[in-house]
C-alpha cells in the first residue's frame, strides 16, 4: 500500500557526483523515517544512511562518511542522497526505504538494520566507472 519511488542514478565516472531522490506515493513523507540501502552484484544489501522524520538526526555507514549526504525537504515531499567523490566500489542498486516508526524509536542506530524498515522502493542503478 505504501510505495517509495526512487529517481536518479545512471552511469558516472569515478570522482563524480550523483543525487538520488525518493518520495512515497500518496503519502506525507514527514510521517516516515527514511533510509537508503544498496546492494552490489553478488553481495548482501547494506545500510548507507538514515534520517529522522524532522531531519534532526542522521546516521551514515562508515564507508560513505564524508562523501555522501542524506537530507529531506518535507515541504516538497522528498528525501535525497547526495553522493560525491564516487568510487567504483559504490556501484550498486540503491534502495529507498520508509518506516512510520509507530513504536516511537528515538535513536537511528535502530534503523541501520534493513529489517526495521517496512516499505521499500524497487531501486535505482548507480554504476561508477574508472
Radius of gyration: 14 Å
Proportion in helices: under 10%
Largest sheet: 7 strands, mixed
Given as residue ranges, the uncertain stretches (5+ residues, pLDDT < 50) are none
Our measurement of the CA-to-CA distance between the termini, rounded to an integer number of angstroms, reads 40 Å
Q: Name the beta content range.
A: over 45%
Shape annotation: globular
The number of strands is: 11
Provide a descriptive summary of the structure in words:
With 130 residues, the protein is mainly β. Helix content is 0%, strand content 45%. The protein has no helices and eleven strands. The strands form two sheets. Strands 2, 4, 5, 6, 9, 10 and 11 form a seven-stranded mixed β-sheet that branches. A four-stranded antiparallel β-sheet has the order 1-3-8-7, with no helix packed on it. The mean pLDDT is 96.
Which helices and strands occur, and which strands form pairs?
Elements: E1 4-7, E2 10-13, E3 18-24, E4 33-39, E5 46-51, E6 58-60, E7 68-73, E8 78-83, E9 92-99, E10 119-120, E11 124-129
Parallel strand pairs: 2-11
Antiparallel strand pairs: 1-3, 3-8, 4-5, 4-9, 5-6, 7-8, 9-10, 9-11
Keywords:
0% helix, seven-stranded mixed β-sheet, globular, 130 residues, four-stranded antiparallel β-sheet, mainly beta
Write a compact overview of the structure shown:
This protein has 130 residues and is mainly β. The protein is 0% helix and 45% strand. The strands form 2 sheets. Strands 2, 4, 5, 6, 9, 10 and 11 form a 7-stranded mixed β-sheet that branches.
